[in-house]
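User: Can you help me understand a structure? I only have the sequence.
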Amino acid sequence: MEYRLPIEPDRLGILIGKRGEVKKKIENLTNTSIEINEREGVIKVVGDDMDNVIAASNIIKAINLGFSPDKAFILLDSDMNLHVIDINIYLKKRDENNLRRVLGRIIGEKGKAKRIIEETTNTYISIYRNFVAIIGSFEDIYLADEAIKMLALGKPHKVVYEHLFNARRMGGGGFKIYG
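Assistant: Let's start by predicting it. Here is the structure, written out as tokens:
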């Protein structure tokens, strides 16, 4: 079985690692083989077990989306998932300035908003180009996803934080109040 995915050229060195250590670790932990074709911009993951091929592919996707290899390896836990949000979907006007503004809201001053979302939802968040990627359990990702979408749609930070804290106090996910 095989799975193909694109290479992010600026993330390739991180995916391979010093002396190929990261690539070898992915291969060893997932019992797969990873073939990198820089010319075509494609990575091919090959293995006998589809679950292992998917696990290796998800780790590679996470690294491609800006996560460190250590954080990406969390995806080996079957309870952990990778979720990706394309922020362009939430832009009223698609241009670099608007994208930077919305990503700045999600990051917050000195990383405060991102940090609060991560800590409150027990997730890891990476912001890369126009994508926000989240690693966590399904329920935790759902809550982080809500908060990120609320910020992308212009909700005040205070409202988003209150929503997160209330949802956690009530014991989990919650309801949609954005849009």
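Now, to help you interpret it: Confidence is low (pLDDT under 50) at residues 174-179. The longest helix spans residues 50-64. Let me know which part you'd like to focus on.
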